[in-house]
Amino acid sequence: MRGRLNAGLLVGGALVGIVVLAALASFFWTPHDPTFVDAARKLREPGGGYLLGADKYGRDTFSQLMVGARTTLYVGIVAVGIAAVIGAPLGVIAGMTPRGWLSELIMRVNDLVFAFPALLLAVMLGAVYGAGTLTAMIAIGVATVPAFARVARAATLQVMVTDYILAARAAGRRRPAIAVRHVLPNISSVLIVQASVSFAIAILAEAALSFLGFGTRPPTPSWGRMLQESQELLFSTPRLALWPGLAIALAVLGFNLLGDGLRDFLDPKLRRIRAEG
Amino acid sequence: MRRIGIWIAMGGLLLSTAACGGDSGGGTSTPAAQSLSVGFVAEPANLDFTSTEGAAIPQALLVNVYEGLVKLDQDGKIMPLLAEKWEVSGDRKTYTFTLRKNVKFSSGAPFTADDVVFSLDRVKTDWKLKIKSQLDVVDKVEKKDDSTAVVTLKRPSNGFLYSMATRLGAMFSRTGVADLANKPVGTGPYVLGSWRRGDSIQLNANPSYWGAKPSLSSITLKYFKDATAMNNALLTGGIDVISSVQAPESLQQFADPNRFETIEGTTNGEVVLSMNNARPPFNDKKARQAVRHAIDHKALLDTAWAGRGQLIGSMVPPTDPWYEDRTGDYPYDPAKAKELLGGNTLTVKMRIPNLPYAVNSAQVVKSQLAQVGINAEIEPLEFPARWLDVVFKQGDYDMSIINHVEPRDMGIFADKSYYFHYDNPEFGKLLASADEGTEQQQTDDLKKAAKLLSDDAAADWLFLFPNLIVAKKGVTGLPKNAIAESFDFTALAKQ
Q1: ipTM of predicted complex
Q2: Interface with A, mutate which of B349, B382, B396 (most A CBs under 10 A)
């Protein structure tokens, strides 16, 4: 699986890299304690050790952004992980038994979950089990399962008619072995692209949930809640909304570009078209 | 006595019920065509406050459309309204009200002592609210003559006259209660004009009002679901007044003194940092005292609520006669707090309602408690349903933060089963003797009770919720304090 590096891949990779670096660095060092409230520093202007200033609690915005990146990635990884671990095998099973009752059942349940708004699911879970990062992650993850299942099924259907699968079946390989040895490796590029795009959606969903008060619990920094807390200061201190807003936008853009870039990079058909053109 | 009514009041973010009275500053005569539009955050479900809970109905109608025999002024004093005066018998069980003459209901019917008997009897027979139990102390109501009504109590009660200033004392016409939900009939300065459900209620000046005629021909109460939308409506001229600002930092938008005026008054809302007195670690008085010493209340107010509000230190707002400044009882002293904890560290559950003041305050409380070795884990619960269930009913919490908005609600600490689980028999005795004693004794006893609460660190009082009004320049006669159930339009005027 080799392709040409493209602009989307590079820019996306760079943006995602920044977020990952910030999140990793925040484990060892932040300029200030991101949750320490200090009335004396309330709405402090940027400068003098406070790169982006402080919020209405006197908390350093830059430190909050760094730890917020951690929250964002954490939610993204777990949510996409849940979706991939549940969705991909279901899709493969459905794809390998296209006319069976199991396939029907999986895909119809899939449609049911798909029709249910992710945010509503998260708000419901939050109301019943208590709002928090974990419930947000689970809700976003569950809501993303259908996307993975569908993509995996479609890709599996394509793979199942290839000669090497036919050969494997003729050689008497059992279905689970075919799925693991032949199908999964061949649909992995599709899944990676899907993961990247779902990651972007998960970031947005986490931000929206935190904004609504159903996401990460205060005072753990989260970009969405930073936005929400700056809402009433939108007119007087717009920078407080600007930075987390920018962070969310760039992270989402980064993962989307990365997804597009990876698709171009990994998809042999597109590569061939480009080579011919 | 257990009062669950507060939660209903708080449900709709209705921390805004504004006060009666107010000095009649807007006395200048103005052309009859003047009208004003006032923004509110919760719309009444219907117009019948005798059968429907919720603060939005009396907020709109009491004092404006319905009047009682007495009303609360801006300082919390009980003033005459439909009663010119009243006399209390020597045993303090008989109240003789002398009624104002020439008062008419908006239907044209005259207001007499028969209506007093009718209205107060009706509380017992027809009202469906929990708070109607406040008038259980009334034994009988009798007409002496057309303009004299006599109320006899079962026992002396200082709370009786105060209750008469709330919606419980509103005077209804014997011929005007057929359709309370839609057609209110009262004696007030305004009558219901129109009601566009989901949008606004218009009140028109009552041409046959017995007192000083309102200087406005109509007032529109405009209802907003969203505080930001209400702010924008004032900025763009859609309304003239914001009855209650929900996000104090947003006041900076209205800083221009040539266009707007901000009025900050008080409410009956004590924002309480409650601690579960029934289970470890806060069944230990020392742990509770440590919390009180660990919190820098001034810094908390400055960061969590933009410095708006007042520090109180116990369960009494400054508009009650028995108010004393108790903020000095537990000065900010982290070293003392650590000492009280004996070097131990604690981990506690702080289960708060997901309301702005609670979420804001909790983050500051957490940061400050962390300095003395208390790790408070914040868990916002959906309000009202989930918070009421987990914290209020089941009592499964260590700490919480809630604005107790009911007036004169110190008594909730006397109930052991109330979610504070505060248990000091001395406190209950003080409250009982306060209600039955003379007014002076009431004041003395309740001062002692408030001090006892503070000394025992039954809870911590973060701040008194402010009443924040923003009006266009030129609007006068707005009620500064929100200490009664109504938003009093009586003196409202436009220059």
Answers
A1: 0.81
A2: B382
